[in-house]
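User: My instructor asked us to take a sequence, write out its structure as tokens, and then describe one feature of it. I'm not sure where to start. Here is the sequence I was given:
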Amino acid sequence: MNKHYSIGELAVLSQIKAHTIRIWEQRHGLFTPVRSVGNTRYYSEQQLMKLLNVALLRKNGMKISRIASMSEQEIIEKASELTTSGFSKKTAIEQMMNASLHFDQTTLSKLFNTYIETHGIEETFEDIFFPFLKIVGNLWVNGKITPGHEHFFSNMCKLKLFSVIDQLPIPANSKPHILLALPEWDYHELGILYYHYLLKKAGYACTYLGQAVPADDVVQTAKTVNAQHIILTFIGPTTEKDIKDYLDKIIENTTGTHLFISGPHVATLKNKQPKKVTVFMSMDTLIKKFKLKD
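Assistant: Let's start with the prediction itself. The structure tokens for your sequence are:
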């Protein structure tokens, strides 16, 4: 992990405004930035961890003056207590960030169970996990955390979803069969796995192929299971040509099948696709189309 953070990066990681961090630093002496050779202020990894703990205590109602009077060890111990025993949506970012940066699987698993027990699987993923992953993804792209941190958290989410999906009853064949897959270069599975959960819960028979599926295999599977719909997401690095070639192969070799495609790379294709392809930029499109929620 990058050991140096600007105040703006601290603000992103902690969800605490930079102005507030400066006040805590200047009035209460909670943080001491270091200056580089070029006189740029930055903060260490240790100070990041302290800020996450301070933010957690503050959001749980503790006054900043009280926190400032505590020793470093007292702050750590109190924050650890709150991480494992208390929960509210407003503290979820600090809790998950702290556990993820430490690769603390035990704590993160407990948090997951608490979130789901409190809010249910759908609200937990849509209001807590997915927003948090956007923060983590941006930090990864900018080199502020390692790919390992992002993979650790997203894989924990996937394990939870696989478990929940496995416990759902096998749907009857009264609804259209739906095939879900990622293109052969893509391994970002969490979003489409969540679609699988929503569809199976709503009673749709689904065939889930998951990561890195060649177009020929999508075609062959769609024919075998008689899929009326195919859902594809394009998340990983790619080009418009690669997406078009992939879709063209499926379109040309299937009949009676409608494609739903999503991801940051397909927005420009919205007005360029044939009628059998629907580009959707939010989960709400699928929810409305397939009536996935009441």
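For the description part of your assignment, you could build on this observation: The longest strand covers residues 206-213. Try explaining in your own words what that tells you about the chain.
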